[in-house]
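From the pipeline queue, job 12 of 40. The input is one protein chain; the requested action is below.

Action: predict structure.
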Amino acid sequence: MTYRVGLIGVEQHVERVFGAVDNDPEIELVAVANAGDRSAEIADTYQAATYDDYHDLLARDDIDVIASFQLPVHQGETVIAALEASYPVLSEKPMVTSQSELERIIGILQQNASLHVGQLFSRRGNPVYRAIRDVVQSGRIGEVALAYALIAATERRGVRPEWFFDRRLSAGPVLDLLIHDIDIVRWITGLAYQSVIGTESNIGRPDDAHYHNVGQMLFRMEGSVSAVLEHHRLVPPSLGRMDNRLKIVGTEGQAELTHDGRVWLYQWENAQELTELPEQQDIFSNFVRTACAGHEPIVSTQDAVESMQATLCATEAGFSGMLLQVPPVPTLPQRTAP
């Protein structure tokens, strides 16, 4: 079977789409829109049709899945348009940048159980995070008590596009960066977020009125579990380009991901590094195959919406400094085959 993909936009981690197409003989890129200067290159490499207006791509009748990799501020309108055209959609994160866009998506999904929507939460396919989830879900650290996560990066001005440093276009670092940890802590613990308070700051860049580079969020989760999630773009080059850490503490031990990418399990009687890790999973390929078959992907529709809801609340909390409740997302109808 061949799964035909239509790609809208080429921002951020779009190479994950090209990688899936290159490595999976059953996934074919048949059309691309809003690719700008890359249109000719993509058309030549994949023999894909190109469009300047993504609405022309959505009007085709030979596409199975839409991949949306627009600028964050345009992502929501694209995902909504694709869903309204009855396509399953996997988007780069963030899927939306406003509560009104998310509510519109929820309304569409409630009316059409054959539609899937997902986000490129690549950490769910990463062996180290999958290993920690297996440990936590198996009960090896007992009942979850608290969580801590850090996602940090070097700034890389001059390498990243300028829109990346302007929250009017990027939607800011919580929606662009911390969203990964907001999702992964939910997925690992299986606990929903209930409230959040936090800070967002511009440290050392007073000339950048629309740039934030440091933030910290405190979530309350189900069962009075707390989660401290931090982000920043101040990683010194001597440490590397990224600094990612995770710790889940339970009543009988804790699981930890260290800066150097090692996974440790600490129990009362012993400590061990976990070296036999699950296989890597390609989140995009998984979405294409499962959504077309009517099965739940690794990033399910319900998960994509719930993590998005919590991230929108965290963004608002960071700007306002207020304690905000995270509204529960209605349980969506079970997804069915198209």
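Job complete. DSSP finds ten helices and 15 strands in the chain.
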